Amino acid sequence: MNRPISHDTEILSAMPALRAVAYLRVSTGRQAESDLSIPDQRKQITQYCLSRGFRLVAEYVEPGASATDDARPEFQQLIERATDGDHPFDVVIVHSYSRFFRDSFGLEMYIRRLAKADVRLISITQELGDDPAQVMMRQVIALFDEYQSRENAKHVLRAMKENARQGFYNGSPVPLGYRTTEAERRGAKSKKHLAIDPVEAETVRLIFRLYLEGDGRSGPLGIKEIVKRLNGQGYRTRRGASFGVGTLHAILTNRVYIGEWTFNRRDSRTLKNKPAIEHVVMPVPAIIDRDQFEAVEQTLKLRNPKVTPPRVTTGPILLTGLSTCATCGGGMTLRTGTSKNGTVHRYYTCSAAARSGKSVCKGRSIRMDTLDDLVIKGLTERLLTPDRLREILASITSARAAKAAEVDGRVTRLTQELHEAETRLKRLYTMVEDGIAEMDDILRDRITSLKLDRDRIQASLDQVRTNAIPTDAIPDQIIAEFGSLMRENIANGDIPFRKAWLKSIIDEVIVDDKQVRIIGSKHALERAMTGGKKIYQSVRGFERKWRTRRDSNS
Fold it and tell me: Which residues on adjacent β-strands are paired with residue 336?
């Protein structure tokens, strides 16, 4: 039985040697490598052209691209060529409309764009003309294709989320420092885990160490400086490319390095973050210690140019970001002046007065070398001596001891309450076992209530013990070594290196007319002395600063 041919198809058949191009597409690269779809599409389109008398002049093959948008190189080349002024071909032939577009709006838009260039789109499996009924049918087909695409995407994502929940890697680019290993095989599919790559992991640890501590000859380095150093020393990314600022920032903020790989964190097309409820966190081996990672996160926030200007961190002026005017609290910035003999003098000047005039602040200036020497000398002689450090730390130890005594009392009370709850439970269990009481609803509710009390008390006890505050004093040897190290590092070396050490122990240098006050935190001083380890939780002193007598430098 002969199939009737539409009037539109008869017109096309009557036209001699229409020039045609084929557009062939599959959705994934895996299909392009192993599937037979593209060869089959090519064969059917070729036979269609022969049967219609079309001359097939070119083909555009898209191996592994979704048709839900137009971000396809071959597709764009096809459209660009089809709309050229020399009119290189007459028809674009596809196996089905879903090969061309899986978005109903996009399909209609590009069909009309081709029509303006007098080029027609023909589907060999869905031959439709241009009358209103067939146009409507084409639009309905496009809607079904779009729906099917979205449904497939939904089910694929659901399967990938479940795969991630089971601890398996879904196949996105592997972060620096890791490699994939086969965990198990299910039929023809290989399930993979992330494992640490020993060589690349050392590069990751180096990046974090340079950002927090430097290389021992400088202070903590900024991201740009780390990039320069890594590229200069021959380090490369996994793809063999040079490191960049964006790459380094992504590494420093990637929580995979503390053992938390997050799947489905953002939309792959829009790159917008998805709600946290849709995230799937998969445990992986950690490369970086959590405390170190959180310290980096905090430093990144503080170094954000919107929070701290770059000159404060890496600038060539020692007290930029530390020195402030005693009158208005504004920062002291560098100003230069030239004497009659041509000598250039550098001063710290109140920025508010320099920027807005004396009506805002009367302003004050001090020679840069004079203020630098005053601060270094004051710290060296009045703070960084064993006796002074021991005196400052004694107040912390005393407050900690008082807090520890309170915690010990709390532990004792909770331990007693826990013992009483467990004793009551044992009595009830004994009564039931000995037949003295029957397990009715009232007794069952009482046992449940006692269990809840016991679990609550146990949780409180565990929390108190976890937050227990050590009361051990810092040994005299460590105090002496720290004082010696600090005196050396704040006085010698490059400015960023010295500035980093100063910022680790002082918060502010207040410049007044007749005195300079140096303010710092006692707990920051203790953390610097113990290598940055948090050995206490939240011990508050009556005086926040180590400059207890407000008598730093005159």
Answer: 346
| Domain, as residue range, for 326 | 314-404+471-554
> Which residues contact residue 266 at a Cβ distance below 8 angstroms, ignoring those fewer than 6 apart?
272, 273, 274
Rounded-to-integer distance, Cα 504 and Cα 493, Å = 16
Tokens representing residue 477 in the block: 């040897």
pLDDT tens digits, one per residue of 424-464: 888 888 887 887 877 787 888 888 888 888 888 888 777 77
Query: CA-CA distance, 287 to 198, in Å (whole number)?
Result: 10
Q: What is the CATH number of the domain that holds 186?
A: 3.90.1750.20
- Strand pairing category for 19-26 and 55-63: parallel
Same domain, 285 and 366: no
Kindly report each contact of residues 296-299 with a partner whose C-beta sits within 8 Å and lies 24 or more positions away, as own/partner: 296/208, 296/211, 296/212, 296/252, 297/253, 299/211, 299/212, 299/220
Polymer length of the chain: 554
Query: Can you state the angle between helices 522-529 and 476-491, rounded to 10 degrees?
Result: 100
Q: Which residues contact 171 (CB under 8 A, 6 or more apart)?
A: 192
Query: What pLDDT sits at residue 548?
Result: 43
Taking only Cα atoms into account, the Rg of the chain, rounded to an integer number of angstroms, comes to: 37
Rounded CA-CA distance 346/212 in Å is: 31
Per the structure, the count of domains in the chain is: 4
Q: What percent of the chain has pLDDT over 70?
A: 83
> Is the domain of 260 the same as that of 396?
no
Residues 354 and 411 in one domain: no
Cβ neighbours for 488, distance < 8 A, ≥ 6 positions apart: none
Q: SS3 for 12?
A: helix
Which is nearest to 318 in space by CA: 520, 152, 531, 506? Answer: 506
Options 6, 27, 365, 554, the catalytic residue: 27
Residues forming beta bridges with residue 21, ordered by sequence position: 58, 92
Same domain, 459 and 477: no
0.70 surpassed by pTM: no
130 belongs to a structural domain: yes
Clarify whether 27 is annotated catalytic: yes
